[in-house]
Design brief:
Helix content is 39%, strand content 18%. It has helices at residues 19-22, 27-40, 53-61, 77-80, 82-91, 129-144; strands spanning 2-7, 44-49, 69-73, 95-99, 121-124. A five-stranded parallel beta sheet has the order 2-1-3-4-5, sandwiched between helices. Helix 3 (53-61) packs parallel to helix 5 (82-91). Bound molecules: 1,3,4-trihydroxy-5-OXO-cyclohexanecarboxylic acid. 1,3,4-trihydroxy-5-OXO-cyclohexanecarboxylic acid binds at residues 10, 73, 75-76, 78, 99-101, 103, 110.
């Protein structure tokens, strides 16, 4: 099973960026945790981060034929990007939306996701563990299908 993890803008700064909101774990450390869990599950993992909306759209388009499912932390694009939504509608790859912080407990503009209704489900608020919970949920759903 092939799973791609797509990370959006500013997630490259995890560890330094607003640690009171996002914690001190870096994206590289999260990637290592997720890779280890994926290996244990027999999952082939691809990992991607971009600060650019167009590159995120390209990455979603690239999922077709290369991934059985995806974990997506679209960061701020979650709340703003109709282009990301359109790409997900075009590609129709099963995905879990995830966030480190609980977006529903934050500012009003973060409480809406433009992609959540397209997702199998949403994991939000568990810090780095959100990635592991989302992986577990996606693998379970893909294996059950
Ligand atoms: C985030 C939440 C978003 O609102 C924010 O723009 C991010 C990170 C999270 O993982 O908590 O950059 O997706």
């Amino acid at each position: 099973m092939r799973i791609s993890v797509l990370n959006g803008p500013n997630l490259n700064l995890l560890g330094q960026r607003e640690p009171e909101v996002y914690g001190r774990t870096t994206l590289a450390e999260i990637e290592a945790m997720v890779r280890e869990a994926a290996r244990g599950d027999g999952v082939e993992l691809a990992w991607f981060q971009t600060n650019h909306e167009g590159a995120m759209v390209d990455a979603v388009q690239g999922l077709r034929g290369t991934a059985d499912g995806a974990l997506i932390n679209a960061a701020a694009l979650t709340h703003s990007s109709l282009a990301l939504r359109d790409a997900l509608l075009a590609v129709r790859v099963p995905f879990v939306e995830l966030h480190l912080s609980n977006i529903f407990a934050r500012e009003p503009e973060r409480r809406h996701s433009k992609i959540a209704d397209l997702a199998l489900g949403v994991v939000t608020g568990f810090g780095p563990q959100s990635y592991l919970l989302a992986l577990q949920a996606l693998v379970g759903r893909l294996r059950a299908a």
